[in-house]
């Protein structure tokens, strides 16, 4: 009887639930998750510190922005005390951190509304335009880079390199103005500045803040196509700058891979050129390419100030510009904080994708 029990125990798999191996694996996974959360927390704390101290060293008095230049001294001091600016700097910092963690970014002088409410209203517009821009950049830039590398020195390679050079050298505002003059004013292929025609403004409830999605949810196809005509040109301009960077980096990565011995071996074995490019050479560059795409996307989210100004696009770039002109420091710091948080989030998403695509990173 005892021998039968021992045989049954030996027949159990070593990886069954509750085994030391599974416990160690679970603890290792938990440590990894806690490490990522700790890194995000410390990075965000550093971002809070940078934005706070920048707001204190810039030559702009937030009290004067609220009470005005001609306010009596007593009113100025009362506002200063109410805003907590009479306290030591370290106390002001901890108060600032506490307010941010509770979602309180202060009141905007420009709009008279909470900054968090303003950012929740304007950020989706930037997100929508930047997302379309990065989609255009990836769908066009990656194939351009791959085929330019496969035909190094050819006419196609030279044309793609010139396109990349233009993407780095042409000013964004100039390209936007030329696009408006040609495709909107002359050819009338696209909508003008803004997200919608005035006639459609306010006709769709902002469920997600993304007008293309909200119009589809509401079943308003006319508004969807109108919004699409307005976003097409600014998204295409952003996509042009994005594809220039992505194509250039993809070409560089592919040239390095195409020079490897395993690619030569595949060609000698008679593997088709398409499989050599996309299966053998392209797969190893996915991990560094994710970094390039992530940084490009983050750059579009925070660097579209000129495009939003040219196209009167009601996004975070336009909001930040207005806040700077009005010395609205709460809005400036809140916008900077959101942009920095976007960078942190995209970097962490890139780290997760590394582990999914490259088993060696696990």
TrEMBL record:
UniProt keywords, alphabetically: Cell membrane, Membrane, Transmembrane, Transmembrane helix, Transport
A single GO cellular-component term from the record reads: plasma membrane
Give me the segments passing through the membrane.
33-54, 129-150, 162-185, 223-247, 285-307, 327-346
Q: Which Pfam families match?
A: BPD_transp_1, BPD_transp_1_N
Tell me the GO molecular function terms: dipeptide transmembrane transporter activity
User: Which intervals of the chain are annotated as region Disordered?
Assistant: 1-23
Its membrane topology is listed as: Multi-pass membrane protein
According to its UniProt record, which protein family does this protein belong to? Belongs to the binding-protein-dependent transport system permease family.
Q: What is this protein called?
A: Peptide/nickel transport system permease protein
User: Whose protein is this, by species?
Assistant: Aminobacter aganoensis
